Write the structure tokens for this entry.
Amino acid sequence: MRRRSPALWAAALAGYAFLYIPLVIVVVYSFNDSRLNAEWVGFTFDWYRKLFHNEEMLSAAGNSLLIALVASAVSTALGTMAGVAMYRYRAKLLAVLVLTPIAIPEILMGVSLLIFFVMLNLRLGLASVALAHIAFCIGFVAIVVRARLAGMDESLTEAARDCGATPWQAFRYVTLPLIMPGVIAGALMAFTLSIDDFVITFFTAGAGTVTLPLQIYSMIKIAVTPEVNAVSTLLMLLTLALIVVATRLTPSLFRN
Amino acid sequence: MKRFASLLALAMIALTANAKDQLHLYNWNNYIAPETVKRFEEQCKCEVVQTYYSDNEELLAKLAAGAKGYDVLVPTSNAVQALIKGGQLKPIDKSQLPNLKNIDPAYLNTAFDPDNKYSVPYAMSLTVIGYNDQKIKELGLPTDTWAVVFDPKYVEKIKGRVTVLDSSSELFAAALKYLGYSANDVDEAHWKQAVDLIKKAKPYWAAFNASSYIKELTVGNIWLVHGYSNDIFQANLDAQAAGRPFHILHGLPKEGAVLAVDNMVIHKDAPRPDLAHKFMNFMLEGRNSAELTNLIGSGNPNKEAIKYIKPEILKNPAIFPDKTMMLKLEQLKELTSAQRRLRNRMWTEIKAGR
Amino acid sequence: MAARSDGRLGKWLVIGPPLAYLLVFFAAPALIMVLASFRTPGEFGGLSPLIENGNIDLNLDSYVRFFTDSIYAQIFLKSVWYALLTTLFCLLLAYPLATLIAKSGKKHRDLLLLLVILPFWSNFLIRVYAWMIILGPNATLARMVNGVLAWVGHEPVPLLFSSFAVLICLVYVHLPFMVLPLYANLEKHDQALLDAAQDLGANAWQRFWRITFPLSLPGVYAGAALVFIPALGIFAIPDILGGPEDSLIGNVIKQQFLETRDWPFGSVLSIVLTVAALAIAGFAAWIARGRLGTPSSAREARA
């Protein structure tokens, strides 16, 4: 039985409250009978009805989800490698390359990626957006994985190698389980960053490529209607469901 | 990882396999009625793929960095000027635009595009004052002058309840007009006067805001704004729909205001210029042009559209200004890069609180 | 010490892919913009041609402008201050959250973690709008605060369109990026250490300050980096709910690209921002390593 102080509980609950009060407003206002996201007028399902007929918004949401899944998967893989490399081999150049995309203002990165893609004659579209997202997500994963590795006992890995395991086996069965919480934390961050990115996506998206943030930000000067609240609520639920399903199907991945 | 790679490949194939006739329209959001788009799609047997921007500068930055794939763009006049000078546009073939004759000649043959070689007027808006009639009447403030935004003796009564646009060109234009100069005045001394005027009024303003000011006005948190006429029109509709006790009205400053005319242009690398011309000709039809005005309260340069526009919108002098007001309206002109730099330096000073 | 024959190959298999990816999709484009900082802006946008009449048009104008005009440094320092405050408040809020999650049983841990990040899968804009509703002049919070102020005889203060609103939103938006790294670190802390300390007579505060906090420093540092560095360049939050003087360096940079069309100057500001952010992060890391003598560095010294 763990003794957890009531003070800790209170502070943590305050934290959750801080996180959720705005979210409650977001969900509640998706039923608001007003075009504006500003004051409660009345209850309605209209926005959800409108949403289901709004092909543009739905396909934008789908694009965002697809890009986020791909970008977070690839950047988690590359970021984990980078984190391990930074810790184990003290790769300095890699550390700089990994950290700088986090620091560099998004507008600069967006414009430069666009110029770069045009120079390469790369066709702009969903793929160009995904490539851009991966570039800035790698850093987030790498930093968390490296922090997780800090203080980790290398003797375990060495023992495994002494027992005859290949480097891949040592990684897969010794290192990876130990850093798994870091990898998962990194993956969650990468997914979150990708699904909500606007600036870089704006510049690297092709003609006809619309992601949800692009769609929503273009409404900023007119009215961000509760349809946006509705699509956000549904997207959150969908992503939550996807994760729950994934953890059920691959319990080994999440076992420590 | 393999699963994701194949998923990605499938998605790519699905997306690139779409070989239907497509017109790529890069436009402001909510700047074309959905019915209009549907009707055009039926008529041309093609698909209109819309992408959006919310600011001319976003469009300009993206094109300057080399993006392509768009057919029709809808920039404001000063952005058209920049695009023409930057060689980003394809000249239009007037023989494919018989409906061009529907446009009021007052809006054709402008200084930035003589003889309409590249652009065709689409819709317009004025940058005026929007206000909560109940609160402003209570306080007895004038609404036909920029003084209510800039003069401390008026603004102090609505301290914290006024917003101005977060756009250096728009705010400077209003300040210059108030001071009696042209909105396109480039005299540095006059600009300094405008900066002083703005700095004196700034302590009473709630925010520089171009994005969320309208909803704050509509719910009554903000009582007076420097904003766009079609936004103010929409705010009034929303306020009435929510049953609020006040109206949101337009205030037309007697010193004059900025007129923004948005135009249809064709990008130089447009994949389907033929469809682009079809679309432009379609939008030049009175009925199609009127649908946008009826939807969002935008001004309309199309003579043939007048008979399809709702009477209450036609009566609104902020949407269809009368002849005296027209004389006081100005369209914004592009600045040279040295002037832009100076303007931005002054703007930074204003916003940094120095 | 791994002196195996596959050592070098193994090393490059791990370093190679992320390095290659970042060199192509980050370093190359970034270099384009670094070069742009030495060029002249195009008259109507973009950049002037690099080679004009046979001469390469490169100059230091934009850099000179930045270093000779103190206003940019002023705004920059303000942004550093906001980012520091954001990081501090994020840390204070995130620590209890991360501790609770890390100490929870397997069943609840994943759910609690997901609950932290779930709100951030909704769109950024409507989350900010939700804050505008919470902080609006007619909403409960503002009325309460101004009620108290009126009772004390003070003028009402706006909660919305103010630095307060900007800070709250900054903290809100960055919170998960502090919670997740902290959690990843706290999760591996051995409860036995704390139990032993308690048995030896240490109270809760001593256990936290002497054992938990030092061990969690890599996580604290990671979280701080992932909050401070992005917070430094943010522009959307001041744009939407900031007051007339809440313009930050991110806003100035955005204006260079989306108003003045002065890409070279925008590049200069961005480069200075990036270098400064990395320098501050590096400096903080150096201090952290130097002051601590953490178990990790002892182990590294052994290896």
In short: The mean pLDDT of chain A is 88.
